[in-house]
Design brief:
single chain; Ribosomal Protein S8, Chain: A, domain 1; 9 helices; 3-stranded antiparallel β-sheet; alpha+beta; 51% helix; 6 strands
Length: 176
């Protein structure tokens, strides 16, 4: 049995049945405590999924963590900057109408959620490394264009590394 303290318990209560079915655990509530009953590994995974939901991820995003290939990482903005205007830094991460966050998500193949002074990232471990590097640079003041360029360069490295072009195409002698 594991006990998890949640500040926003309503989201978990709304998805209780889905969580129990997907994670093979039983959830009960006592005040702001969530009591998780199940096998130790399932309890551990349930805690991670609940933690992700508490950060602001939707159920369908948080449940990805149940797959052992996916990981939840958190970045604490205060740990990466000396600036005191954290609302401006959060705004830089999110961008106008969420554009910056969306571009970083697309280029890194991760899901990102900003909650208070914490940035949550769900994705495959190799993709999370790229997203953390990009977000760290953004938090420390690098321009969005530089961050996008880094992610695009990493993405193109990945494509060539895994043989996107194997050189099997027949080349013609015709000039364009």
């Amino acid at each position: 049995m594991a006990i998890y303290y949640a500040t926003n318990i309503n989201k978990i209560k709304q998805n209780k049945e889905k969580l129990e079915k997907a994670l093979k655990v039983k959830l009960s509530f006592s005040g702001k405590n969530i009591i998780i009953k199940g096998l130790p590994l399932e309890e551990f995974v349930a805690e991670k999924v609940i933690d992700a939901m508490e950060l602001g991820f939707m159920f369908h995003q948080a449940i990805l963590i149940a797959d052992e290939e996916f990981v939840l990482e958190k970045i604490h903005i205060k740990d990466l900057t000396k600036r005191h205007d954290l609302s401006r830094i959060r705004a830089r991460i999110i961008g106008t109408k969420g554009k910056t966050k969306e571009i970083i998500q697309n280029l890194s193949d991760c899901v990102i959620c900003v909650h208070e002074n914490t940035v949550g990232i769900i994705g495959l471990s190799e993709n999370i490394k790229k997203a953390i590097t990009a977000l760290t640079a953004l938090i420390q003041g690098k321009k969005q264009g530089k961050v996008y360029g880094f992610l695009e360069k990493e993405r193109s490295k990945e494509k060539t590394q895994f043989g996107e072009d194997l050189g099997l195409k027949i080349k013609s002698n015709k000039k364009p």
